[in-house]
Design a protein that fits this description.
single chain, about 180 residues, 6-stranded antiparallel sheet, about 25% helix, transmembrane helix, membrane
Length: about 180
């Protein structure tokens, strides 16, 4: 009888340890992501616009990755540190694959998705999905991300329109002489 009372808590602890270990293995990142990026050569893009007589500034997927990695908060929560990221844009949805460290101990792979919108003079990313591998998490865990692009009162060139075209972000510029 005493053996049963000893074995029951031990077996419970063993099953709990196996479940926690299995969960940690399941949420572990499947691919290595970094925060490395190549800075955007904006001068080259502007020269291309002048050569083509275009008012469209086109940002590729690597440009978007560089901008977001350079400007993102790597510790959005005190228990969460972003260790690597990769962003893809498809139509008006930005997909973020993130390698994070939970509580400075547990590595995990998160997948977030945001709707990209333009509200002059800000680019807004509205969260629409969050997953850990295949498990859906509440979107309320994510915040809207806002990027102020320029100060509308202090610039001659403003963004007329911002839209996505496949996996590129197109920024249509215009001259604003009268404010």
């Amino acid at each position: 009888m005493k053996k049963r009372w000893v074995l029951l808590p031990l077996s419970f602890v063993l099953v709990l340890a196996l479940l926690i270990g299995g969960l940690i293995i399941y949420i572990a990142p499947s691919k290595q992501l970094t925060m490395d990026y190549t800075p955007i050569k904006l001068e080259d893009k502007l020269l291309g616009m002048v050569r083509n007589l275009s008012t469209d500034l086109v940002l590729t997927e690597s440009d978007i990755n560089a901008l977001l990695k350079a400007n993102m908060n790597r510790q959005p929560h005190k228990q969460l540190t972003i260790e690597g990221a990769h962003f893809t844009l498809q139509d008006n949805i930005l997909y973020a694959d993130l390698n994070v460290l939970l509580a400075d101990r547990v590595p995990a792979e998160l997948h977030a998705s945001y709707v990209v919108t333009w509200h002059d003079p800000e680019l807004k990313l509205q969260p629409v999905g969050l997953k850990v591998k295949g498990l859906t998490l509440p979107v309320s865990w994510l915040n809207e991300i806002t990027f102020p692009i320029y100060d509308a009162d202090e610039t001659l060139i403003v963004i007329d329109r911002l839209y996505t075209q496949g996996n590129e972000l197109v920024i249509k510029l215009k001259l604003s002489l009268f404010r």
